[in-house]
């Protein structure tokens, strides 16, 4: 997983992911349906205590931020793997949903798996 606080898709991934409803320069040949990638993460008690202490004086909770970045990346990887399993090479209208749960934080990446081809193949 990443060692920084940024995000985004792994450049080695061959599935195009867009938050838009289309892919400029590409034609959608087939829609394969909604797909998602899901992960649930929990902080250990030491990290949770440290975050609680940090929240008293204010400031970024870097451990929490890193956990959320890593979780989103894992959910994205699972999303693109599911699109590939269905025969797709793109995911459109991708979104994240994050919800706190009793045991941890649930992160879901979801979108529409499809097959896209370039408008003007070389």
TrEMBL record:
InterPro entries: UPF0145_dom_sf, UPF0145_YbjQ-like. It comes from the Bacteria. Gene3D superfamilies: Hypothetical protein apc22750. Chain B. Belongs to the UPF0145 family. PANTHER family: UPF0145 PROTEIN SCO3412, UPF0145 PROTEIN YBJQ. This is Uncharacterized protein. The lineage of its organism: Bacteria, Bacillati, Actinomycetota, Actinomycetes, Catenulisporales.
């Amino acid at each position: 997983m990443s060692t920084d606080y940024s995000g985004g898709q792994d450049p080695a991934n061959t599935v195009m992911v867009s938050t838009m409803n289309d892919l400029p320069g590409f034609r959608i040949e087939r829609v394969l349906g909604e797909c998602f990638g899901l992960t649930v993460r929990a902080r250990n008690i030491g990290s949770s205590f440290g975050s609680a202490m940090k929240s008293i004086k204010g400031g970024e909770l870097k451990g929490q931020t890193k956990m959320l970045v890593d979780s989103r990346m894992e959910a994205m990887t699972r999303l693109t793997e599911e699109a590939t399993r269905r025969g797709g090479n793109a995911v459109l209208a991708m979104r994240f949903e994050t919800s706190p749960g009793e045991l941890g934080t649930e992160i879901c990446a979801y979108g529409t798996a499809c097959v896209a081809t370039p408008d003007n193949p070389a």
